[in-house]
Amino acid sequence: MRLFVAIAPEPGVRQELEARVAPLRPAWPALRWTGQQAWHVTLAFLGEVGEGTLPALGERLERAAHRHPSLSLSFAGAGAFPAPGRARVLWTGIHGEHRALEGLARSVAAGARRAGAPPPDEGRRFRPHLTLARCREPADVGPLVEALAGYAGAPWTATDIHLIRSHPPAALGAQPRYEAVGTWPLR
Fold it and tell me: Least crowded by CB within 10 Å, which of 52, 66, 90, 171?
């Protein structure tokens, strides 16, 4: 099964961000916009993980969560990977307790490694963000990045980490479906 570990923004924060993003969507129909129910901040992408690894993974993630306090975060601004002029991903950034968030991501990745589910991107720089849209072909999303540059969302508190299973899209152009496999509270 395809898994990742994430934190989820509070519903009110998602609705606030949705109100800011929704008016931009009609002018950009070629982008695959993510829906607010799928919005999350990935701490570690684990990729394909065998069913037998889940018990040990759950134990390790629970330990990692209990080592870290809740985090005060907010969404702000926008950017694109790899760059606005040739984007594959449009995102909004994370403001707040960056060092603590990075520490949590490192603990989650270490726990996954010890459980036998090493993140394939471990060792790459952690770049916390929330994906707003994806592009099939590289696109110039500079105007979108500019339109969202001044966005500053309300603060919210991350209180849990979630182990999420990603189910492939049911149809071409559809979004994957996410299912929580486990949830653990932060300290």
Answer: 171
